[in-house]
Write a structure and sequence with these properties.
With 314 residues, this protein is of the alpha+beta class. The protein has two domains: 168 residues, Fructose-1,6-Bisphosphatase, subunit A, domain 1 (Fructose-1,6-Bisphosphatase, Chain A, domain 1, 2-Layer Sandwich); 122 residues, D-Maltodextrin-Binding Protein, domain 2, CATH 3.40.190.80. Helix 4 packs across helix 7.
Length: 314
């Protein structure tokens, strides 16, 4: 068994998982999603950017790319032989594939987060949360793995199984090879921040937090895409992303199951933090698959500062 942190760059993803002694079936899940992403890359480059003529469980019109990306990932997971349940952000229910809950995994995913940005050629991504057994409505701290894939100028895959956070980049042969191992957030206040939500609808605590960031010299860097903005914070090893509670939307915008839990798991594994403003994201108990929550995620010091301002002012 090779210990994480001692691997030469450019080793491929499957070999890396095998040599760091990851569970065989969990390796299968991660690699199936990695393989699915190769088809999603092609769909983004060449596919239909129009509407699918259908809606998701939130009543939002689905893009053709959303539907296609969902089908690509779902097909790989269904035929993997190691997945019990699937929950997709594009579907209104959890799909049971196998009743063997003791020995298989369940996967919750957003197949193409930020898909509306594709037609203006901005980066988008796939976000994945993995649990042991059949139940996905569990606190995020019970995840056994989380990952995202960023489709940008380069296609990169970032994952954690609870033993550090590692980044792989897709090469010219469409294989994922190791790029950064054991990514760790730096200590100190955020130098960049990515704020979501209309500022006029922020509450007093969020406004004071943002003002403190700006007064300390933090620069605003916001793309409108959750995956590229989180990736910026993680790869630069500094910064904070927030989509806070709003005056007319106290639960915020982002979904706990498909977006917040996997990203919070990754950032905590890298030495960062993720909070709703009033507590740890990974301690939330989802009561439905479309549950939402506000989020402040990134450098630990900045997330703690956000909690202080929100706690004092709301």
């Amino acid at each position: 068994m090779r210990q994480a942190g001692t691997t030469p760059l450019h080793v491929d993803l499957r070999r890396y998982l095998r040599e760091t002694d990851e569970d065989r079936d969990l390796t299968r899940v991660i690699c199936e999603i990695a393989d699915a992403s190769k088809y999603i890359v092609n769909a983004i480059r060449t596919g239909d950017l129009g509407m699918a003529g259908t809606s998701n469980l939130y009543g939002e019109a689905q893009l053709a790319l959303d539907v296609l990306s969902d089908r690509i990932i779902r097909k790989r997971l269904v035929h993997s032989g190691v997945v019990a349940c699937i929950a997709s952000e594009e579907s209104g229910e959890v799909q049971q594939i196998d009743r063997d809950c003791d020995h298989k995994y369940s996967v919750a995913y957003d197949p193409l987060d930020g898909s509306s940005l594709v037609d203006v050629n901005l980066a988008v991504g796939t976000i994945v949360s993995i649990y042991k057994g059949c139940d996905v409505l569990r606190p995020g701290r019970e995840q056994v793995a989380a990952m995202y894939i960023l489709y940008g100028p380069r296609t990169t895959l970032v994952y954690s199984t609870g033993r550090g956070v590692h980044e792989f980049a897709m090469n010219s042969l469409m294989e994922y090879t190791l790029n950064h191992e054991n990514i760790r957030m730096k200590s100190g206040p955020a130098k960049i921040y990515s704020p979501g939500g209309q500022r006029s609808k922020w509450t007093e605590g969020t406004e004071k937090f943002a003002q403190e960031l700006e007064d300390s010299g933090a620069k605003l860097r916001y793309s409108g895409g959750f995956v590229p903005d989180i990736n910026q914070v993680l790869i630069k090893r500094n910064g904070v992303f927030m989509y806070p509670h709003l005056k007319d939307a106290p639960e915020g915008k982002l979904r706990v199951l498909y977006e917040l839990n996997p990203m919070a798991f990754l950032l905590e594994q890298a030495g960062g933090a993720a909070s709703t403003g009033r507590g740890r994201v990974l301690d939330l108990q989802p009561d439905r698959i479309d549950m939402r929550a506000p989020v402040f995620i990134g450098s630990k010091e900045s997330v703690e500062l956000a909690e202080r301002f929100v706690g004092e002012a709301g």
